[in-house]
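Hi P.,

Sorry for the delay on this. The queue was packed all week, but I finally got your sequence through. Input first:
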Amino acid sequence: MRILLVEDNRELASWLGKALRQAQYAVDIVHDGEDADHSLKVAAYAVVILDLSLPKLDGLTLLKRLRQNGNKVPVIILTANASLDGRVAGLDSGADDYLAKPFEIAELEARIRALVRRGHDRAAPEIAVGDLVFQGSTRQFFLCGDLLALTPREHAVLEHLVMKVGSTVSKDVLSDSVFGFDDVADPSAIEIYVHRVRKKLEGSTVQIATLRGLGYLLRHAQ
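Then the structure:
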């Protein structure tokens, strides 16, 4: 799952990026509004974490431009301005959530999970596909009742597929959700990770089907 973090405080951005990557998110970090605007035009994100006090293009202007362009990506505003007027301005500009600094990383992660579920129309915190269960509250997978051990990349692939269960996901879309700007990935990388996940699902009633020319489909194997 890929996140765009827009924060001009480089120390805070580095800390947040490290924490989110440890939580198995792919994270792109930019430090001004213009770079964020460009990133949002060339890449798809599950969530945007947006500071309001940005150089070159402020957060509210960036957010308004994003919504005017029809981009519905969930946005969490981070700001030191915890006033009512500040919250109202952010929400009226199109933000989905608001978190005042300082904050706990656990709370930010919980809000990210809630927005992702909402964005995929997954109100329930648990998704079951055959023998596979994904717990949205912890982002853990269980297969036949046992915790499924996955590397961060394998987890990212399976999480995106389970969020789109029943729908075909193209290789390019899957790649974009797994790899950030700073990641080095050759064209066959996604195929390798899908193969590894398939091996870990062997013997269960869930499978990742390949639809030639279309992409991958997570489904209950009948």
